[in-house]
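note to self — DONT lose this again. spent like an hour looking for the file last time. sequence + predicted structure for the chain T wanted, 263 res
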Amino acid sequence: MSGDGTVGKALDVLDQVAAYGRPVRFATLLAESSFPKATLYRFLQTLTSQGMLEYDPDQQTYSLGVRLVRLAHAAWRQSSLAPIARPHLDALSAMVGHTVHLAQLDNAQVLYVDKRNAAQPVAMFSDAGKVGPAYCTGVGKAMLAFLPPDELARALGQQSYHRFTDHTYTSPDILSRELAAIRTRGFAYDREEHEPGIICIAQPILTDRGRVLGALSITGSTRLTSLEELARLAPRLAETAQRIARDAQDWRFPDSHLQKTGS
């Protein structure tokens, strides 16, 4: 539960409704809620009156509201790397022939914001809009590795360390050693840590000052490729990440080039 007062608690309820991925009844929400019945109902009524949720009186269900769609579109334009990165993802995907992912951190988890399928598509968890674990995905580890120490400590404490496969890192100590190796190497591997048979290399997208904007990965199946083959693509991945970072910097801070030249 959020510790950020009334607004934080209301957002917790919003997250709970969203997690179902379908309209949900009050009784179902109440069964899994930490709030008393009256409190949960009050939050649902407030969110509905503000257009953040919609209530279907016939089915007696709650679902995400249309206002969220408007806010999501605005967030996509203002905060997501996807619009900026689109041409770079297209070019990288055409060049390497493997699946390409673009991700950002969201509350110490991975939010996939864009994806390009391989020439030979392989079924996998990730899709644009999905949220995944950071500690056992290539993009997640690439971003964690380059966080400032205080942010990294906080993020490590928010990981579940659930064992998805025999290769999953299941403790912060082991993960920390892996993150140190990533900082030295410059990019991350996913060695079937989240899904059996799925491997990748991942590169952080960093500002000039080293702040993490997101991460980019080239992903394949062990049936079709190997980590060694993917690693040979690391220079192209790094180049693409740098181009995305440069475009993001110019978009967010359009006058930064003037400051650099002293104009």
